[in-house]
Amino acid sequence: PATPAATAGPDCLKGKLPTRTPGKLTVATDDPAYEPWFVGNKPENGEGFEAAVAYAVAEKLGYARADVTWTRVKFDVAIAPGPKEFDFDINQFSITEERKSAVDFTGPYYLVRQAVIAKKSAKIAGSASLADLRDAKLGAQVGTTSYQAITDVIKPKAKPQVYNSNDDAKKALQNGQIDGLVVDLPTAFFITGAEITDATVVGQLPQVGTPEAFGLVLDRNSPLTPCVTGAVGQLTADGTIKKLEQKWLAQVAGASELK
Prior knowledge:
28% of the residues lie in helices and 20% in strands. Helix 1 crosses helix 7. The chain is α/β, with parallel strands linked by helices. The chain has eight helices and ten strands. The protein has two domains: 4-111 and 212-248, 3-Layer(aba) Sandwich (D-Maltodextrin-Binding Protein, domain 2); 114-204, D-Maltodextrin-Binding Protein, domain 2. 47% of the residues are buried.
């Protein structure tokens, strides 16, 4: 269906939008907020791809930076059913049909691939195919499409390990409790480049079915959904999101695909 916000009409501007706090836009993300999506765990500085996208959406809706209030909400809580404490949440939420029964999504602002990282010394570090990963002990954060990618795409013999946060998952990789960790590709490059420097990106996983994409999350049937969706659509159409992607996610090229 056509969204009334496709041209960000007058009803899609500050003053007309029924936000949680009149005249303010409350935006949520996780704590900690990871690079390259945010920088320094400070979403309010506008640095990092998702922080920049959030402020660009706010601006399209007529909100100045000073009108944006950040709040922290855990990943799995944000996509659970029930009323939300935010106007929208930006936190690498992949759009899935299952999640749409609990929350609203905007259209996509980033097409994403999942990737496997391992210690450089690990047996799976040189893997060229999915078959090479079948005997590995793999892990991912709870409730994520990264976890789903392990069970649906890699299909290892051992049950994957689940972690409450990527921090816990990274510790497990460092401590040798798992052979490989599955995260989205930009996160994989950041972890191996800046956090666990003796780890490597083994490869990216093939797309299965619908291409995976990140969208902003809103309350189910939120009156803001059409306007926020319209803003994301405009930022995609006018090239703003592409520019932000080139600025903050430029390093995400060149991981070989595991077939």
